[in-house]
Structure formats: structure tokens, C-alpha cells
Specification:
- The chain is α+β, with helices and mostly antiparallel strands.
- The chain is 34% helix and 29% strand.
- It has a six-stranded mixed beta sheet with strand order 1-9-8-3-4-5, with no helix packed on it. It has a three-stranded antiparallel beta sheet with strand order 2-7-6, with no helix packed on it.
- The protein starts with a helix and ends in a 5-residue tail after the last helix.
């Protein structure tokens, strides 16, 4: 009885779980608004088209201040070293990208103590080498991030809507889970009731059969 209950409950929970696939790479755009005096993550993701192909990548970041035309080389990551090249960002940059491998796909950096002078265009460049059976292939991927520094954080409408939708989805999933568990409980309860009813019916039939047998016995 207990074993069947646990098995059925596990089966119900199994069907309401979200399938977990292998963790893959997804290219997500960087945020573009930083608050003065706070930290900010500059995102830059470049996914390989084929995950099974081994490779390596060097990631360079360049910065073009607002109202200027020249890009300044500010940092470079080549596993396992992260080097800050421009003195303006000395001790303010931190590598937040892929760690522990040469096969870099996330080239994010973190800027500490953002200032208004950090407003401008940031260019992330992947110099990637793919190790193919017929020979190495070199590719270059470039992405730009237009950063604006503000005094106070302004919540964008899309961010507010996304947050609201996230809570709505979470609430609906929780209600759905509760509904499935209630359904499982009712089903188990109904099965138990039916089983007890069958047991009672069998016991009653056995009693009647026994009584009929006794009625056929005559004392001499």
C-alpha cells in the first residue's frame, strides 16, 4: 500500500517537472544603462555554432568615449590571464566571462565605480580558433555596446513588464502544481476507497457462503 502510494506520487511529480536539457550557450544582449558610482556588467557572448568542435578564443575590449572617434584598447583576456591595458580602467575592470578553459564563449567584464566619463561605445572582439579535422579555422566576431551612465536608475518599461510576467508565470506554475497534487491525492484516495469496498464485499460474500454451509449441516 505505502509503496504504491509513493510510486504514484513520484510519477505525478515526474510529469509536472520541467524537462532539464543540457546547459547550452545563448547569446543575450548586454544591458546599456549604468548608474554612476555603482558597478556594471558589460555583457558579450559569442556562441559556437557547433558545441562539439573544440576551440580557443582571445577576447579584447575597446572603448570609444562619447563624442570621439578613436577606440581605446582597454583590456584583453587570453586564458588564463586578464590584462587591463588602459590606465583609465586600472583596478576598475574585472573578468566575469568564461573561466577554466581556453574555449571562451562569454566575454563579459565588470566595471567597478562607474563614472560619467565611462559613457560611450564598448567593442568586444572574439578572436576564435576552431580546431577542425582538416585544419584550424580562425574567425573574428565583434559586438558593440552603447553605454549610458545616469545619476539614478531608470527602470525600463520592458524590464518592468518582464518582471511582472515572470511573477505571473511562477504563480501559474505553482497553482498548476497544486492542482496536479490535489488530483493525485484524490485519485489515490478513490483507489483506496474502492479497494476497501472490494475487501468489504469479499468479506461479506465469504460470511454468506459460510452461513449457507452451516445451514446444510443436520444434527443426528
Amino acid at each position: 500500500m505505502a509503496l504504491r502510494f509513493v510510486s504514484f506520487l513520484v510519477l505525478c511529480i515526474f510529469f509536472i517537472q520541467v524537462p532539464q536539457g543540457q546547459t547550452g550557450c545563448a547569446e543575450v544582449d548586454s544591458m546599456t544603462e549604468a548608474v554612476a558610482g555603482q558597478g556594471f556588467m558589460l555583457g558579450c557572448i559569442s556562441c559556437k555554432k557547433r558545441e562539439e568542435v573544440p576551440g580557443s578564443a582571445v577576447v579584447d575590449w575597446h572603448f570609444k568615449p562619447a563624442e570621439t572617434e578613436e577606440f581605446l584598447h582597454i583590456s584583453q583576456y587570453e586564458y588564463p590571464s586578464f590584462n587591463i591595458i588602459h590606465e583609465t580602467f586600472e583596478e576598475r575592470l574585472q573578468w566575469r566571462g568564461t573561466m577554466g578553459t581556453k574555449d571562451v564563449q562569454n566575454g563579459a567584464i565588470f566595471i567597478h565605480n562607474v563614472t560619467f566619463n565611462d559613457t560611450g561605445t564598448y567593442r568586444c572582439t572574439f578572436q576564435r580558433t576552431l580546431f577542425l579535422p582538416l585544419g584550424d579555422e580562425r574567425v573574428t566576431i565583434t559586438k558593440d555596446v552603447e553605454l549610458t551612465v545616469v545619476e539614478k536608475a531608470n527602470r525600463e518599461l520592458t524590464a518592468v513588464i518582464s518582471e511582472i510576467m515572470m511573477y505571473v508565470v511562477i504563480t501559474l506554475l505553482q497553482l498548476w502544481m497544486i492542482g496536479v497534487l490535489i488530483y493525485c491525492y484524490k485519485k489515490i484516495y478513490a483507489e483506496n476507497e474502492a479497494r476497501e469496498a472490494r475487501k468489504a464485499a469479499r468479506a461479506q460474500n465469504a460470511l454468506l457462503d459460510s452461513k449457507d454451509s452451516c445451514d446444510g449441516v443436520h444434527l443426528e
